[in-house]
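Internal tracking record. Fields below are filled automatically when a chain is submitted to the structure queue. Please do not edit lines marked as system-generated. If the sequence contains nonstandard residues, flag them in the REMARKS field before resubmitting.
Queue: standard
Priority: normal
Entity type: single polypeptide chain
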Amino acid sequence: MKLAIVGCTGLVGNEVLNVLSELSIPITELILVASKKNIGKKVAFKTEKITIVGIQEAIDKIPEIAIFCAGSKVSKKWAQIFVDAGTSVIDNSSFFRMEENIPLVVPEVNGVVLKKSNKIIANPNCSTIQMVVALNDIYKKFGLKRLVISTYQSVSGTGQAAVKQMMDERQGLKPQRVYPYQIDQNCFPHGGDFLENGYTTEELKLIDETRKIFNDSSIKITATVVRIPVVGGHSESINVETHKPFQIEEIKKTFSETAGVKVQDNPSKFEYPMPITAHRKNDVFVGRIRKDETVENGLNIWIVADNLRKGAATNAVQIADYIFKNNLL
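SYSTEM-GENERATED OUTPUT FOLLOWS
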């Protein structure tokens, strides 16, 4: 596989490199792309040092796959140009996610939708990915009637500048603000841009993307996104209503058998998922599994995953591996 990473110096691009160095992905050539100020710099990868090139040079090399980690503006301008040159594009930005003819993919959930004709593939939002991975087998067995989601999202989801703001605040320095308020020792219910209906763009992503991935517009979903002062992962409190009745032991067994999920649910020993323990891991962690006694077929769960890993880089690499191994290039 000849693979390009567009935006290799950002948080997600750098994490793609980390994931590639850990997993057995058959790469014959790795092409690293960044902004003009970084062209010519070298990046360590395994035992090599790879020189960063400009985006046009990467296109001319005709990689089989390009993973875009550089934001919506770059994806809008360059993704189709890569495709026209013969490259399949996996895009981490939100630009293509809700396009009707572009698949939105989490491989272990809906990888079967991919076809050779899909030359642009969208990587879902980080919060959506971890939720659909956790709920995939619950959906298949019991159906999903309604989801009430509250997220507790890491500042790393906003990028390097947001992490720097928090760290500067923590050290008593005057930061350059990305957020409208101090984030250290604080949290605020604001992710993305506010819309006329009072929801934010991050909240609508959870709603719209979940329905698209499950191919089920009947699921009732509402969400509140909260930003919290951690670096290593997103957490979600989810109240689930299923169509079919269940026993809680059935639910726990289902989670334990779901691909990509690890159960951490032993309250007597204070074992439950946390961002600090999910950091730099590729799995989705589920705990605090309990019935909601106030509604029929109600369930409460707590989900944590590293938003830069399974929420972005790992999922993109898994898509690349999936389309390569299934001869979909």
